[in-house]
Amino acid sequence: MKIKNIFTHIVLILICILSLIPFLWLLSTALKGRSENIFAYPPVFIPKDFTLDNFKEVLKLVPIIRYVINSFIVAASTVVLNVILSALAAYPLARMEFKGKKIAFFAILATIMVPFQTIMLPIYIITLKLHLIDSYSTFAGFLGMVMPFAVNAFGIFLLRQAFLTIPKEIEESAVIDGCNSFQIFFKLLFPMIKPSVALLAIFTFIGSWGEFLWPSIVLTNEKLFTLPVGINNLSSAFSSDYRLVAAGSIVSIIPIVIFFLALQKYFISGTTEGAVKG
Amino acid sequence: MDLKKNIGAYLFLLPAFIVLLVFFFIPFFQTIWLSFFNYSENIYSPNFVFLNNYFELIKSPLFLKTIFNTFYFLILCVPFLVIFPLFLAILINQNIKCKNIYKIIIYLPVIISIVVVAIAFKWLYAPNGLLNFFLDKLGFSPIGWLFDPKYSMISVALVTIFKGVGYYMMIYLSALMSVPKELYEAAEVDGAVGFKKHMLVTIPHIMPMIALVSTISSISALKVFVEIYVMTKGGPLDSTKTIVYYIYEKAFENLDLGLASAGAVILLLIVMGFSILNIFVFEKDKYKV
User: Fold this and answer.
1) Count of CB atoms situated within 10 Å of the CB of A158
2) Tens digits of per-residue pLDDT, B113-153?
3) For chain A, how long is the longest CA-to-CA vector?
4) If you measure CA to CA, which chain B residue comes closest to A159?
5) Which of B46, B138, B173, B203 is positioned for an S-S bond with B37, CB 3.0–4.6 A?
6) DSSP reduced 3-state for A211
7) What is the pLDDT of residues A70-113, one digit of tens each?
8) Looking at the DSSP assignment, which residues form a beta bridge with residue B38?
9) pTM for this structure?
10) Is the alpha carbon torsion for A112, A114, A117, A123 positive or negative?
11) Which helix (H) or strand (E) holds B104?
C-alpha cells in the first residue's frame, strides 16, 4: 500500500513539474540580466545575473497595467451581463408556462451547436454597423468587445438547472403573500441560486480574461488592448528581446493566478461540471 | 392561458433574446447568405453565385489540406485528452496527501491565457531551446519542432494538450465522486484490485463522462485557432493551417467574405454533427424542456 502511494506521488509530482515548466522557464528568462546569454546551451535555469530590470523596463515600454485594467473592465462587464441576462432568461424557462416556450428553449439550445468562429465575420460586420468599435469612443470599444459574449446558452441552462431545484412551494407561498413575478424573482429566487451564479461568474470571468480572437479582430486602438492582445503584440514587437516578452507575460498572468488561488475551492470542489465552456 | 402571465415570461426573456438575435441569430443566417456571393472580383458589389463558393472550396487543394490538418490535429489531441486526464483523476482520487495542491497545479494551465502558454512553448520549441536540450540529453537528435512540417502539428497539439489536461481531469474527478463505494468493495471481494478494479468498476460507471469528454474535446479541437495564430501562423508550408485559420485569413486578410463564409458553413456542419451527438445522446437530461 505504502509503495503504491509513493508511486502515485512520484507520478503526480512529475506531472506538476511538467505543468509548471513553461511558466518557470518564462520566469527564469525574465529574471536574467543583460550580461547573461538567454540562449546559453546547455540552458541555465537559475539566473546567474539576477535582476528585476526586465520587469521595470517592460512596464515602462508597454502599458501592461492599462491592459490589466482593460481586461478587468471587459471581464467584469461580461460577468455582470451574463449573470443578469442568463438569470432573467432562465427563470421563465424553469418556472413559467407560456406560449412559445418550446421554441425559445430549442432556439437557445441550438446556439450551443454553432461555434463563434463560424459566425465571427457577420458579427464583426454588425459590430461595425452598430458603431461598437474603439474608433468611435472608448465606451463603444468596450461594448463591442463585451456584447457578443453577453449571454450564452450554457449560462442560461446552468441557472435554469439551479431554479429547477428550488421547491415550488416556496414560490407558491410568496404568491399567496401577494408578490408578483418580478418580486419573487429578485427578492426570493435569485438569492437562492447564488452558488450557481458564483460558478457562472467565475468561469465567465476566466473565459473572458483569456479571450484573444474577438478582441484581436475588433481592437484598433492600443489604449483598449486587453492582456492577451497586448501580450501577443508585445511578443511580436519585441521578438528579439525575449527577456522583455517573458517579463511581460509573467506580469500578465499574476492577476488571474491570484484570482484563481483565492477562489480555488470553486475549481477543485468537483462542481465544475455544468460550467463547461462553449 | 392568460395573456398577462405570458407577457411576464416574455419580459424576462427579452433582454437575452435581443442580444442573441443581434449577435447570434442574424450573424448565423448572414453567414449562410454571404456564402452564396462572390466577393473576390469587387468587394462592394458582390454577385450572387449560389453554391459556387462551395464548389470552389471543394476543388481547392489548400482548403482540403486545412480539413485534413484539422482532423489530423483532432486525432493527435483527442485520444490523449480523453485517456490521460482520466488516469490522473483516478490517481488523485485516492486517499492521498496533498490532493488539493496537485489539483491546483495541474489545473493552473487551464486558467492562463492561451496566448501566454503559446508564447512560452514557442520559446521551449526553439532550435536550441529546453525541449531540444532534453532530447539531446536523452540521446535523440534535436527536432525542428515548429519549423519542420513533419512535427509542426504535433508541436501545436502538445500545447493544446498541455492547456486541456487539467480541465478534463476536473470533469472526470467530479464523475468519480459519483461512483458508489460499495461497487469497489464488491469488486475487491471478488478479488479485483488495482488496475483491474478500475477496468471493472470505474470505467463502465463513468462511460457517459468519457463519451462527453470525447465530444467536447473533439469540438474544441475542430475550433483550434489561437495556438496556431501565435506560434506558426499556419506554417510552415501550410502544415498547421486549420479550417478556422483558413476562415480567419480569407475573412480578415483577403477580405474574401464569400469563400470565408462558405468555409464557415462547412465547419459548422462538421461541428454540428458532434454537437448533436453530445446534446441528444450524452447530455439529454440537462436540456429537457
Assistant:
1) 23
2) 999 999 999 989 988 888 998 898 898 988 889 999 999 99
3) 78
4) B286
5) B46
6) coil
7) 999 999 999 999 999 999 999 999 988 888 899 998 899 889 88
8) B47
9) 0.90
10) negative
11) helix B99-111
With CA atoms as reference, report the closest residue to B266 among B51, B75, B74.
B51
Biggest CA pair distance of chain B: 78
CB B51 within 8 A of CB B35: no
Cβ–Cβ gap B24/A41 under 8 Å:
no
Please indicate whether residue B93 or residue A76 has the higher confidence score (pLDDT).
A76
3-state percent breakdown (helix, strand, coil) of chain A, nearest 5: 75, 0, 25
> Over 90: is that where the pLDDT of B249 sits?
yes
- Listed by start position, the domains of chain A span 1-51, 52-268
**B34/A88 Cβ within 8 A:** no
**Average pLDDT value over all residues in chain B:** 90
Q: Do B175 and A121 touch (CB under 8 A)?
A: no
**Chain A partners of B242 at a C-beta cutoff of 8 Å?**
none
Residue type at position A50: F
Assign domain B35-282 to its CATH architecture: Orthogonal Bundle (1.10)
Domain boundaries, chain B: 35-282
Nearest-CA distance from B171 to chain A in Å?
A: 6
Please report the pLDDT score of residue B3 as a whole number. Answer: 64
CA distance A266 to A244: 34
* Cell triple for A200: 457562472
Q: Angle, to 10 degrees, between the axis of helix B130-137 and the axis of helix B114-124?
A: 50
Residues A252-269 have pLDDT tens digits of: 999 999 999 998 888 776
Q: Please report where in the chains the cell 491592459 appears, as a residue.
A: A67
Q: Please say whether the beta carbons of B138 and B164 come within 8 A.
A: no
**Given this model, what pLDDT does residue A4 score?**
74
Interface predicted TM-score of the whole assembly (ipTM), two decimals = 0.89
State the fold for domain A52-268: MetI-like fold (1.10.3720)
Nearest-by-Cβ selection for A5 from B96, B248, B275: B96
Question: How many other C-beta atoms lie within 10 A of the C-beta of residue B98?
Answer: 14
